[in-house]
Amino acid sequence: MKKNNEIQIEECPWMDKKFTQLSRTADKLLGLAGRMLYISKSMKKPTTIFNANIFNSKAKKIWFGDIEIERDKEALLKISKRLGPIYVLWEMDGRFLEHIPTIGYVKSRALVTVENGCILYSKEFAERVEILIKKIRGDKE
Fold first, then answer.
1. How many whole angstroms separate alpha carbon 98 and alpha carbon 89?
2. What is the DSSP letter of 15?
């Protein structure tokens, strides 16, 4: 049964219906699923995640596309406020799944967790962002 914040995915045959439940809230706040932010990957910002996959607390994919965590901060917080905790995964961890993910899998692969009004980076993602910021500033290690 379709809820108010879901989009019918029958018109998208390449999506796995077992774990994809696109959210109208996410589409409204982030843009249509599948969005591209930059014409070149060299234009990325330190917190850019290309082909990110956002999952909810039921391990359902609610959105996918390019995301810039700092730029999209308010949208992510609003989505989480409305839908509960959300988790942002790399493309490889969220797109090409051969199994229905569990919430344990989603949490363990999350680069970014958004819940209770906070955006939390995983250790891996925080280190990556720090390295990219230093490169941009021209810092020597």
1. 16
2. S
SS3 140: coil
Burial class (CB in 10 A: 0-12, 13-18, 19+), 72: buried
Tokens of 75: 């949208």
Q: What whole-number distance in Å separates Cα of residue 73 and Cα of residue 79?
A: 10
Give dist(CA 89, CA 79) in Å, integer: 16
Pair 141, 131: CB distance under 8 Å: no
Give residue-wise pLDDT tens across range 98-116: 888 999 999 999 999 999 9
Name the residue with tokens 């819940």.
115
- pTM as predicted: 0.84
Measured CA to CA, the distance from residue 75 to residue 30 in angstroms comes to 6
CA distance 19 to 36: 22
DSSP conformation class of 71: T
**CA–CA separation, 93 and 73 (whole Å):** 22
